[in-house]
């Protein structure tokens, strides 16, 4: 009987973890980001491109909101074939269903005009690769305290 209740508690804890959608065409970068977020007690789903990410967010061709997991944060690479991270950001922010989900854009290229463009379009942050555990801890803190409260501070790098 005790093992049944501990399984129930384990399932509840899993449901309460922030759910991060990591979008990157590089398998290595996806695996690194997945590991960093998992180490920070997050549930992680990965997608290899923007179209797959939109499907996971319930915005694909077959819109079925009943099967869409709750996503608390989208982290997307800027440079991807097909649909860039910027285009994914725009689609997320244009959708009434998912526009409230924070989007973080990551890139290995430090291009100020690109960074400014993403932030103007609604990206919560633009972070240069490689993503570090300190970046993830800061993002994890922001997800935990989505409603800002006076006196609460999320420390960055």
Account of the protein in words:
The chain has helices at residues 2-16, 27-39, 50-56, 85-94, 112-121, 133-144, and strands at residues 19-23, 43-47, 73-77, 103-107, 125-128. It has 157 residues and is of the alpha/beta class. It has a 5-stranded parallel β-sheet, sandwiched between helices. Strand 3 (73-77), helix 4 (85-94) and strand 4 form a beta-alpha-beta unit. Helix 3 (50-56) runs parallel beside helix 4 (85-94). The radius of gyration is 16 Å and the shape is globular. 27% of the residues are buried.
**In order across it, which strands form the biggest sheet?**
2-1-3-4-5
Number of alpha- plus pi-helical segments: 6
Distance between the termini: 45 Å
Binned strand content = 15-25%
**Which percent bin holds the helix content?**
40-55%
Low-confidence stretches: 5-9, 147-153
Radius of gyration: 16 Å
Outline of the structure:
By secondary structure, this protein is an alpha/beta fold.
Question: Key terms for this structure?
Answer:
single chain; 157 residues; alpha/beta; five-stranded parallel beta sheet; 5 strands; 43% helix; globular
């Amino acid at each position: 009987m005790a093992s049944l209740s501990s399984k129930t508690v384990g399932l509840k804890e899993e449901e309460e973890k922030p759910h991060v959608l990591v979008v990157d065409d590089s398998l290595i970068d996806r695996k690194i980001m997945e590991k960093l977020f998992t180490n920070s007690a997050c549930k992680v789903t990965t997608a290899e491109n923007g179209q797959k990410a939109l499907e996971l967010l319930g915005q694909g061709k077959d819109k079925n909101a009943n099967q869409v997991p709750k996503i608390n944060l989208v982290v997307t690479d800027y440079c991807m074939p097909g649909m860039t991270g910027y285009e994914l950001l725009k689609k997320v922010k244009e959708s009434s269903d998912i526009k409230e989900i924070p989007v973080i854009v990551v890139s290995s290229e430090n291009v100020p005009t690109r960074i400014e463009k993403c932030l103007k379009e609604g990206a919560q942050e633009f972070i240069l690769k490689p993503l570090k555990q300190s970046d993830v801890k800061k993002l994890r803190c922001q997800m935990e305290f989505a409603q800002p409260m006076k006196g609460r501070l999320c420390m960055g790098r």
